[in-house]
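Lab meeting tomorrow. Please check the following:
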Amino acid sequence: MPYITRALERYLQECLTDTPVVVITGPRQSGKTTLSKHLLELPELIEKGSYLTLDDENILSIARDDPIGLLRHQLRPVIIDEVQRAPELVRTIKLLVDEDRQPGSFILTGSADLMTLPTLADSLAGRVEFVTLYPFSQPELQQPLFSSDENDIIKQLLSPDFVPKPLISFGYDDVISAIVCGGYPEVQQRSPRRRARWHLSYSDAIVRRDIKEVFQLQKLDEMAQLLKRLASISSNALNYASLGKAVQMDIKSVQKYVSALENLYLVKRIPGWHRNELKRSVKQAKIHFVDTGLLCALRGINEDSLQADKNLMGPMMETWVCSELLKAIVVSDEDCQLFHYRDKNKREVDFILSGRSGRATGIEVKAGLTIKKEMFAAQEMLIKTGCIQRGVIVYNGDRVLPFSDQLVAVPVSYLFCSAGEKGSHICVSRYGKK
């Protein structure tokens, strides 16, 4: 499979010019190693740098026993893969950086959220930049990428001058294919059957290895059941008591294990959004899978399933949009967070994109081809209270439908596909597309 440009590349290059340590976190097999090695191929770094992986048991042993001896004479930048396996290396990295504060000295990658490891976050304070690399986004798969301003959909959604642009067609069948395929690089050229097998082997390996090794959690069989249970409720409210009853675990254990799965980037909790003006809002979080390909494999869903069951398509598409928004936020110039809204009157908005500037946009996902004004009811209420500035519905049609200056329905292609000549989607589809 040829190298596919990642949207984070330019930002990472900037980090390497002014920051001693860059930490790339994200799920296993999201492309962190490939991206790190690609950075060493830049003209200014060619024939420089060194690469160490702590998945190599010999290197891991040395890292734990003699970290200074391992790192002191390595050519910089030093790439260290899966650094969460030897957190004791962090103290040595701090020592070496304080001796020579050269920008771009270390590139660390990890398959767990390393911000949750106090040793790393605290020891490297002021010396480190954290970035997250998720599996491929649709803009990355629909090469070529725009420049950052043109492709910064998050910035556009929060802009007071939001003007949807007509883009290429990304039809209903394409959406289904993208949902079932997911974004992991390893599955992009596999057949549907082989893709599902890879996803299941992947989830089993994460549960059997990382959960035990990184988080020292022992209930591996219960964890596998919990992951499947979470798959069945993706896009729904997260009820710890109900989950605990289903997998025979107490609430505190369920909370601990869900947190571990989130720190491994398998799931994402989207918190409930509330403001002082919204007295009846519900703070309960919703759960989404980070990758819909993995979600489909765990639930036994294929393209035929989604074509046949329109009720199934809705929540799957919502999780897919959530995943794409998370990926877009990481590479956006806009500092923002993602929430959902629900109140005691059962009014809901799938996502609230809230910027640090105070601006917020409501985003609702509809799997159908037809949009009606009443579908904006909850967003209209939030606009009238001054809590959000705009309401957007993402749907599977092919036209931009403005319902007012603040309400608009946009095709899903507007959010996730590059304009101009369409690049090839390399995921094999039963419709014969590539």
Observations:
- Residues 192-215 form the longest helix (24 residues).
